């Protein structure tokens, strides 16, 4: 198959899979399923209250109605992952911005899971649950502000002129998105089945940190591999030092986010915030370099 035919095939299937019609349909489904999941979670909490059933996650998500917010946030995160794969071919910067938004939503989701376990009468500095809430609340404020700064800087980037080389690069990224979508779908199904199996057959204890890492350990690992693949492809289409360093820096951001799932407490938030700060600094330095090169030219 010729190069033109290969590119045409990728463009055709990408436009079908990630069409605006499909995006809107998935958005509507996400909203409806989120509402349904919220109601089901509330019913489960009610059933637990009256000892209708027992589960090994009773003490994590079934103790307080506030915990029910965890479920719709989990469903919304799935839609955000779809958007990440959808926007992946646009630019490395857009993809990283969406990653930052996803990890911030994961932190918010964890807050709703941990609020029912706050020890109001205990010393806040001596209670691990209370300290985690403080870390998360401060962390989400910092993340919200940093993501705002990152997106503000991102919006200042002028679109590159669509050359033949750039078009081939974009189509290569579209091909990665088409492969990434079913891989992530299968991975999410596998982790869900494994988690359900663990609930009934595995005696290991689950805590809220492990619960938040379910699927997202695998997701960010796969995303790192995809980002590295795109980075290697970019070497074929650009020789600009600043752009290569920017793309490499964004891969490091994803690695830092992935590492955060292996930790808890303050270290977890520090790694997440460090990822966004690193990405913001890389973007700002890249823009300053580009501006200087344009002035010299």
Outline the secondary-structure elements.
Blueprint (H helix, E strand, L loop, with lengths): L2 H15 L2 H30 L8 H4 L8 H18 L4 H23 L13 H27 L9 H38 L6 H6 L2 H22 L3 H20 L4 H32 L1
Number of helical stretches of at least 4 residues: 11
Question: What portion of residues belong to β-strands?
Answer: under 5%
Number of strands: 0
Q: CA-to-CA gap between the ends? A: 40 Å
Flag low-confidence runs: none
How many domain modules? 1
Overall spatial form: globular
Order of helices and strands: HHHHHHHHHHH
Rounded radius of gyration (Å): 21 Å
Question: Level of helix content?
Answer: over 70%
Main beta sheet strand tally, sense and closure: none
Report the average pLDDT across residues: 85
The assigned structural class equals: mainly alpha
């Amino acid at each position: 198959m010729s190069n033109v035919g290969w590119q045409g095939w990728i463009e055709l299937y990408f436009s079908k899979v990630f069409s605006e019609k499909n995006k809107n349909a998935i958005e509507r489904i996400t909203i409806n399923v989120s509402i349904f999941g919220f109601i089901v979670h509330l019913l489960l909490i009610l059933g637990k209250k009256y000892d209708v059933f027992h589960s090994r996650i009773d003490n994590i998500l079934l103790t307080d109605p506030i915990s029910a917010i965890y479920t719709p946030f989990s469903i919304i995160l799935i839609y955000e992952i779809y958007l990440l794969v959808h926007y992946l071919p646009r630019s490395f910067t857009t993809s990283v911005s969406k990653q930052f938004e996803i990890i911030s939503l994961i932190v918010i989701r964890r807050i709703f899971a941990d609020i029912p376990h706050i020890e109001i009468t205990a010393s806040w500095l001596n209670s691990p649950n209370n300290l985690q809430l403080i870390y998360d609340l401060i962390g989400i404020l910092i993340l919200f502000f940093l993501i705002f700064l990152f997106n503000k800087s991102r919006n200042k980037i002028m679109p590159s002129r669509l050359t033949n080389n750039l078009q081939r690069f974009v189509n290569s990224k579209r091909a990665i998105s088409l492969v990434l979508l079913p891989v992530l779908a299968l991975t999410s199904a596998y982790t869900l089945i494994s988690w359900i199996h663990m609930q009934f057959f595995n005696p290991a204890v689950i805590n809220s940190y492990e619960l938040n890492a379910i699927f997202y350990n695998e997701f960010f690992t796969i995303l790192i591999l995809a980002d590295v693949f795109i980075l290697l492809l970019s070497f074929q289409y650009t020789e600009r030092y600043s752009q290569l360093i920017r793309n490499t820096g964004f891969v490091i951001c994803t690695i830092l986010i992935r590492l955060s799932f292996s930790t808890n407490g303050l270290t977890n938030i520090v790694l997440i915030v460090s990822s966004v700060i690193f990405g913001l600094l890389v973007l700002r330095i890249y823009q300053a370099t580009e501006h200087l090169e344009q002035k010299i030219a």
